[in-house]
Amino acid sequence: MATMRLDKFLGITGCASRSEAKKIIRSGGVSVNGRVASSADQKIDPENDSVIFCGNSVVYRKYTYILMNKPEGVVSATEDGRDRTVLDLLPTEMRKNDLFPCGRLDKNTFGLMLITDNGALAHRLLAPKTHVEKEYYFRAKFPISEDDVRCFEAGVTLEDGYETKPAKIVLDETGAAGKITLIEGKYHQIKRMLEALNNKIIYLERIRFGNLTLDASMARGEWRYLTEEEISVLESHGQK
Ligand code: URA
């Protein structure tokens, strides 16, 4: 593998922003193969060199995995001529890393967005036959009847004739809000499912994608790297 600058390596592995990394290198907080690093532009081999950052060994991963709490008004695209994208919420140094959102949320939908540069995994997670569960918290304009619940569970016919796969719906005590779990991801799917039942979504937030759940402590627009455990479960999705 090609070599890379030490500050970049510390940035993409999530240790620190590149400017923080530079300061910490200057103060002697980083060592490479047992020797204290003295300059941020020192070249390292990410796969073979041993880097210690503030006393901790840095694990290099070929791919980056980010979980973001998407705010309203931001589009899940890599670029957009008009609106801010989920990538615009990441620090500048991370935007050059071929990252893209894995799947779509509407501009006015909140919640869990996976962002990665692992195209093969994203393709597998989004493939219809993989059936990754996506769970949403929703609020609807009108209460959902028992018949509607049965329709959700059996599959709803959308306005274009598409029959949705069985979905789960659990209502709260108001009867007009709750959780919906889908195993597919058609364009505006939940909004269209409710419209097919003469109802309307007034709030939608994704709270789970496969094994990934939205952290209650994470503010809108905040993000974090996935943990090693989350990555290994995610990578096993759709594998024989
Ligand atoms: N269904 C929708 O209608 N919108 C989303 O953003 C996600 C699921």
Task: Provide a descriptive summary of the structure in words.
This protein has 240 residues and is an alpha+beta fold. The protein folds into three domains: 4-57, RNA-binding S4 domain (Structural Genomics Hypothetical 15.5 Kd Protein In mrcA-pckA Intergenic Region, Chain A); 65-128 and 212-236, Pseudouridine synthase I, catalytic domain, N-terminal subdomain (Alpha-Beta Plaits, 2-Layer Sandwich), CATH 3.30.70.580; 133-209, Alpha-L RNA-binding motif (Alpha-Beta Plaits, 2-Layer Sandwich), CATH 3.30.70. The protein has six helices and 15 strands. A hairpin with a 2-residue loop joins strand 13 and strand 14 (212-213). The chain binds uracil. Uracil binds at residues 105-106, 109, 188-191, 204.
Give the helix/strand layout.
Elements: E1 4-5, H1 6-12, H2 18-26, E2 30-32, E3 35-36, E4 43-44, E5 51-53, E6 56-57, E7 65-70, E8 100-101, E9 110-116, H3 119-126, E10 134-140, H4 146-154, E11 168-171, E12 177-182, H5 189-196, E13 201-209, E14 212-213, E15 223-225, H6 228-236
Parallel strand pairs: 9-13
Antiparallel strand pairs: 1-4, 2-3, 2-5, 5-6, 7-9, 7-15, 8-9, 10-12, 10-13, 11-12, 13-14
Helix pairs in contact: 1-2
The structure holds uracil (URA).
